[in-house]
Design a protein that fits this description.
two-stranded antiparallel sheet, TIM Barrel, single chain, alpha/beta, 8-stranded parallel β-sheet, 508 residues
Length: 508
């Protein structure tokens, strides 16, 4: 992206090093990190920012329209394609109108096996398997993977297994006595959990965020929407007017751009803001490297072979209009046009002063949450900065290898902020019982990600609907077996219900 200060160029060595950090390291936006390596020159151009602009409190502005920047980026991406890639791209482009016309006939046939798997799923792991069989290999790999050797990802799930629960008997709680209505980020939901955001959901299924929003509405659940949504704010809000009210924001350099996004969110009716602070640096995604992950597909030989193995996903992709990222101005450009633009916006040096500015910019519209907290120190600092909600997260184990499991650090954060501050937890949740354990250990609500995204990748709306049905069923059943009528009662009884075990098997 061309910025006002682009003419005040850094010294060559500094500029070169910064460009290399963005273009050759793993410190890039995961959607684009592999593509950036082959387009270093355009990334270098995008990163010509002066020291004064980075250090200044004043907003950074562009010198010319974003449309020109994106068009230039798309041209460079196109020029870098091989003869094979050009040929396959042209074939897909030529076949797209025919595929769209035949979609009502062809897709039901291709999707029949996946729909059957979704119907027969008895837990989230079954939906994961269904997603793996339907999705392109690189798409499923991106959805399912974590950082490095994925120890943090596994530990986030395993942490819930370290907790046992004492069931209750003769408690007199009937099916109709359980009321799990909860207020999350200022809005009311039927259950103490909600759908967290994920960028680029149309990558998993053609209906993307709209399918997720409709399923959330059916179940009376809230949802957060990513700044890198592939559906517009207005479309998602129309699909779920009462529950799609939280915008999840990344840390970007251009304050003018951030203001534009915030204003659009306010105008669309969003009433809460989430700063995703655990994503200014990007972890090393080894599985993405192995699968050759790119957005959009680059039509490499490997990608084409994997596409043949996933006919439902492939036809779904070929029959739809290529998607862009709709929160970004000029997002009518395809995803490849935003590669350098978004990578240049990533700001690892985003700090507490920047966060304070963001809180002030959002104003009194509604709650502001800090996502990515993993310590008591950061939790208390967040409250001092202006945040009123603490979101305990390690970004799904996708950032720092061996980062602490969110379930393990939850009591520390709760003790630090007190009982009156809203605390949200995500990470490792695969069953409704995990949600109940998190509530008992100190969370006010739980954000789910992969659990419903597996459903989206497996079957669109039907898959998300099935995931939410399974989770809510398990939560309700667990509450009944524990003899708890509400979340408040669960928290009150928690000291008597929870039995903690360390990794050596000792009880405490």
């Amino acid at each position: 992206m061309a910025l006002r200060c682009a003419q005040r160029v850094w010294p060559g060595g500094i500029r070169h090093n910064l460009a290399e950090a963005l273009c050759t390291s793993e410190m890039t936006l995961p959607y684009f990190q592999l593509m950036l390596r082959s387009h270093a020159n355009s990334a270098r151009k995008a990163c010509k920012v002066s020291r004064e602009c980075l250090a200044s409190e004043a907003p950074v502005e562009q010198t010319h329209g974003r449309s020109e920047d994106m068009a230039s980026a798309a041209a460079k991406v196109n020029a870098a394609k091989s003869t094979w890639q050009h040929m396959m791209s042209n074939i897909v482009y030529s076949l797209r109108p025919i595929a769209a016309m035949l979609k009502p006939v062809v897709m039901p046939i291709l999707d029949a096996p996946s729909k059957k798997r979704v119907r027969e799923a008895v837990n989230i792991y079954d939906l994961r398997e269904a997603a793996q069989k339907r999705a392109h290999a690189m798409v499923f790999g991106y959805l399912d993977s974590g950082a490095d050797a994925e120890r943090a990802l596994r530990r986030s799930q395993e942490a819930f297994n370290d907790v046992q629960l004492r069931h209750a008997v003769l408690h007199g709680v009937g099916n109709g006595d359980i009321n799990l209505e909860t207020k999350i980020l200022g809005f009311d939901t039927r259950m103490p959990y909600f759908l967290t955001s994920c960028a680029g959901q149309r990558m998993f299924h053609a209906d993307g965020e709209i399918a997720s929003a409709k399923a959330a509405k059916k179940h009376g659940l809230g949802m957060a929407l990513s700044q890198l949504t592939t559906s517009t704010f207005e479309e998602v809000r129309e699909a779920h007017p009462d529950g799609a009210k939280a915008l999840q924001l990344y840390v970007w350099r251009d304050r003018v751009l951030l203001k534009e996004v915030l204003d659009r969110a306010k105008n669309a009716g969003f009433t809460s803001l989430v700063l995703t602070a655990d994503f200014s640096w990007v972890g090393n995604r080894e599985r993405d490297t192995r699968t050759g992950f790119t957005v959009p597909p680059t039509y490499s030989m490997r990608q084409c072979i994997d596409a043949v193995k996933a006919p439902a996903w492939t036809y779904d992709f070929m029959s739809r209009v290529p998607y862009g990222y709709k929160a970004v101005p000029d997002a009518d450009f395809p995803a490849e046009s935003l590669v350098d633009f978004i990578a240049a916006q990533m700001k690892p040096e985003f700090d507490w002063k920047d966060a304070e500015w963001l809180c002030q910019e959002w104003g009194d519209v509604g709650p502001v949450a800090l996502k990515g907290v993993a310590s008591a120190k950061d939790a208390t600092r967040a409250l001092e900065t202006g945040f009123d909600t603490i979101w305990v997260s390690n970004h799904g184990g996708r950032q720092l290898e061996d980062s602490i499991a969110t379930f393990d650090v939850l009591p520390e954060v709760r003790e630090a902020v007190g009982d009156d501050i809203e605390v949200i937890l995500d990470g490792g949740v695969r069953r409704g019982l995990d949600i109940v354990k998190a509530l008992a250990r100190g969370a006010d609500s739980v954000a789910i990600g992969r659990a419903y995204l597996f459903g989206l990748a497996a079957g669109g709306f039907d898959g998300v609907d099935k995931a939410l049905t399974l989770l809510s069923r398990d939560v309700h059943l667990a509450m009944g077996l524990l003899g708890c009528r509400s979340v408040a009662e669960l928290k009150q009884k928690a000291p008597d219900l929870l039995v903690m075990s360390d990794r050596l098997g000792h009880r405490n």
